[in-house]
Amino acid sequence: MDKLEQYILDNTSEEEALMHQLERETYLRVINPRMISGHLQGKLLEMLVRMMRPKRVLEIGTFTGYSALSIARGLEEGAILDTIEVDDELEDIAASYFDKSGYGSRIRQHIGSALDVVPRLGEVYDMVFIDGDKREYPAYYDMLMDGGYVRSGSILLADNILWYGKVAEPIAHNDRHTEAIVEFNRKVKEDDRVDNVIVPIRDGINMIYIKIV
Question: 52: which of 68, 128, 183, 210 lies 20 to 30 Å off by Cα?
């Protein structure tokens, strides 16, 4: 961690003890633990939720539940987060921390591909956090925008949108992850139905405001 990043963390509101415990357990038990959102991004998600006051939120990619807890912490009474994870081996870790928190009742946990689960849920979401399989980002976008699962005024937040800087370099042969993220960013930029800005926090978040669907 460089000095500037440490300064930012030192001058950001303290991380909840439960969240620190979850991050520690993730690094001890899970392959690719750096996929966890972490304190800075988690606090940003919480603050955005508090400001936007969504009633229905969708998360694509639960992982071990850090971002879901961050979102749920910012939700008002009666609001619901649907979080979807394709890897069923991560389900118990996330569920245990949802149960330990004071706001786990705001979270509905689902296992499976988001491309299958979202149509079954049939909800319309005020806010969506996309952090699932990077190869499926364009398909997630098409599903949400064309399937009736978001509305005018909804916000989409797509994580890892800079993909460790690979999006700005020549794409390696058969690098489907980078290809899909580049395609996603292009789709968003060329879509007249939305406004967007890429925020270079951690690995980048594409913040997308839906003007009309």
Answer: 183
